[in-house]
Write a structure and sequence with these properties.
313 residues, alpha/beta, 12 helices, 38% helix, binds adenosine monophosphate, binds manganese (II) ion
Length: 313
Amino acid sequence: MLNEAIKNAASIAIGGHVRPDGDCVGSCLGLYRYMKEQFPDKQIDVYLESIPAPFLFLKGADEIRHEILADQIYDLFIALDCGDKGRLGFSAPLFESAKKTFCVDHHVSNQAFANENHIEPDASSTSELVYDLLGVDNISKNTAECLYLGMVHDTGVFRHSCTHPSTMRAAASLMEKGIDFTKIITETFDEKTFAQNQILGYALVNSRLLLNGRGVASSISRQTMESYEVLPKQLDGIVNQLKLTKGADIAIFMYELENGSYKVSLRSTEAVDVSCVAGRFGGGGHARAAGVNMSGTVDEILENLLPVIEEQL
Ligand code: AMP
Ligand code: MN
Ligand code: MN
């Protein structure tokens, strides 16, 4: 039980996955806020890489730690929205050294890597799982903003197939806390900077159809990111737009990483389980949304990916 583990620990660290997305930030800050309010005497710290600017309004965002101290050992490390240990990135040493570890997650690829695990692959989001674990009565307005944001992002505003009646009921309870849900959706999910819209346009203009129109792919080089002055964490949403191409059962979007390899994002309909496709190359995720890092040129990566996708079409 998570509550039991929290009660028994004097010092607690929370960590999420590299390049944190809305669900990762929402679940981590939501749990952080809850624990700060309920257990003011405990030492509680949250570790995440730098987060997208629209999420900075969340209470506690300015307290996120981006580096670890070598000699810091926590009684409890809670990993959220993280499918495997490696995805923790810079906070992994704190997970390794913690006296106890707990994982709350919804990735089907999660192999239960902590001492205690609460993994529900069917759940809409880690934020919904955190909502369930905390109990609605213990959730403040500040915590509600975090968890609602996380649910909005992983469900594509309560639209993807991972959205369940339970998700809508949880969202309704969070609305009853008095949060500004319109602002959260508009300013953190819909709104893009001018540069983000420009690079989205670039990605769409240069997208190509594959697999007889059943697939669509596009890519962005580092050079292009630099010329539009856009950071990798600002490219979220492009793959979802590609996925809206009529007839496409799979969308592939990739952007170049610092070392010349590519971060590949996959989105699909029921026709393809992309967590299996990503898994074949060392990545992971969910049936309809998955990711993997791959080396090679864009064409080489597609040459590797397409036969694996075709097995399912
Ligand atoms: P993304 O395409 O980055 O939005 O990721 C889609 C889903 O796949 C998210 O749930 C990620 O946590 C997961 N994911 C992305 N990249 C990786 C990776 N390299 N390894 C494992 N899971 C990943
Ligand atoms: Mn995530
Ligand atoms: Mn998630």
